[in-house]
Amino acid sequence: MINIKVFAHLREKLGGEQLTVDHTEITVKELLQELAEKYSIKTDSIMVAINEEYADSEDLVQSGDTVALIPPVSGG
Amino acid sequence: MINIKVFAHLREKLGGEQLTVDHTEITVKELLQELAEKYSIKTDSIMVAINEEYADSEDLVQSGDTVALIPPVSGG
Amino acid sequence: MKNSMFIITSEPVSIEEVTQKVVRREAGAIVNFIGTVREFTKGKRTLSLQYEAYPSMAEKQLAKIGEEINEKWPDAITAITHRTGKLDISDIAVVIAVSTPHRKDAYAANEYAIERIKQIVPIWKKEQWEDGEEWIGDQLENKSYPKGKPEEVENND
Amino acid sequence: MKNSMFIITSEPVSIEEVTQKVVRREAGAIVNFIGTVREFTKGKRTLSLQYEAYPSMAEKQLAKIGEEINEKWPDAITAITHRTGKLDISDIAVVIAVSTPHRKDAYAANEYAIERIKQIVPIWKKEQWEDGEEWIGDQLENKSYPKGKPEEVENND
């Protein structure tokens, strides 16, 4: 199982801070495609972190990992 | 009478914060020459203020004015 | 945790406290950046702001900015505190303090830090206006990350 | 007098106090410069510093720097406090606070202020070392003012 944290407008849109999906292993790109279809969200501008580190689209997410969907940041 | 304030190494060298000279009117340049001779000080690097404003060497100092001899500053 | 150099907190931020962390005998210059909530942005009146963060990752990213600064300016020491939650006009959102032996480096490193915060630290700002509210940085979808992560250098105002 | 934006004082300088003077609803960015007494300069150990000022003129010159900043950055607000007397290592000699609507101006205006302080404000620093003491900026007589006053632009580190 992969835990997915969501923030800002995504959190409001998806109605919660945390989702889970069931995969043993999946690339970031595939995971985003799945989430885009399942939740009708645009993922072009979403960055992804695996276990609190930014990931590339070809990086592998494994069961037990925590993924974060990170919309364009606006701190400061 | 013209009051002359001195600071930093000049104050220590001249043994006080204030001097006076007796002139009705004198240019900054002439005043510096007079002080250089009288007190054996080098005035090349000295800026002059008349009544708390920087002055040019041709500006006139008049009786009653307060002149300050300002060595290169080193604040900050 | 209050002693850490890189903090996300829901408490008000003390300029003195962040600054004290970078004071040292070798440094003659400290530059602070203090980001406060501005009332008007492009003519639109802000009533308040809400900051949300992914705190554990945000603190790691702030520490990463500190490391990047030390690669570029080896003598610099950096401390950053960013606040989350509801902020009113003029409240402090972020304090960045950088100390260096010589002042030019402190200005440059400090400005680098705020640029990087706006690029890589997972913090989001929601503006509350008289006629609505909006998460900043996302709704126009005018940014995209084709690589799935931020570029190393990217300038946003 | 403590409410003035441009102060020469023999008391310790509060970063918060100087910063508070420039906080306002229109400003989203504040940059501080904090000059502290550094222990080592070019390998030589400083024990303490003594600052002397021509206070009334120095405050006028600080205010002049504020005016110059407003000509270059009309939206900037500036406050500066410079301390005089004996200072120990890490004591604060000067705090410059500049607030602006946008941050780039705050950095630029602040750096301009410290450069100008080092050019036109009648304050002098005497360094106390283990083997002696010396007024800084004069003894080498490596600067001269052929016009009797400082040039408009002159860069010293």
Number of domains of chain C: 1
Summing up helix and strand content along with how strands pair, one would put the structural category of chain C as alpha+beta
Give the end-to-end Cα distance of chain C, rounded to a whole number of Å: 31 Å
Q: How would a crystallographer describe the biggest sheet of chain C?
A: 5 strands, antiparallel
Query: What is the topology, as strand order, of the major beta sheet of chain A?
Result: 2-1-7-4-5
Work out the count of structural domains of chain A.
Answer: 1
Report the helical percentage of chain A.
Answer: 25-40%
**Roughly what fraction of the amino acids of chain C lie in strands?**
35-45%
The H/E string of chain A reads EHEEHEEEE
Q: What is the CATH class name of chain A? A: Alpha Beta
**CATH architecture annotation of chain A:** Roll
What features would you describe in this structure?
The complex is a heterotetramer, with two copies of chain A (76 residues) and two copies of chain C (157 residues). With 76 residues, chain A is of the alpha+beta class. Chain A has one domain (2-70): Beta-grasp domain (Ubiquitin-like (UB roll)). Chain A has helices spanning 8-14, 28-39, and strands spanning 2-6, 18-21, 25-27, 47-50, 53-54, 60-62, 66-70. In chain A, the strands form two sheets. Chain A has a five-stranded mixed beta sheet with strand order 2-1-7-4-5. Chain A has a two-stranded antiparallel ribbon with strand order 3-6. Chain C has 157 residues and is of the alpha+beta class. The interface between C and D is large, with 36 and 36 residues. β2 (29-36) of chain C pairs antiparallel with β2 (29-36) of chain D. Chains A, B: GO terms for molecular function: nucleotide binding. Chains A, B: Involved in sulfur transfer in the conversion of molybdopterin precursor Z to molybdopterin. Chains A, B: Pathway: Cofactor biosynthesis; molybdopterin biosynthesis. Chains A, B: This is Molybdopterin synthase sulfur carrier subunit.
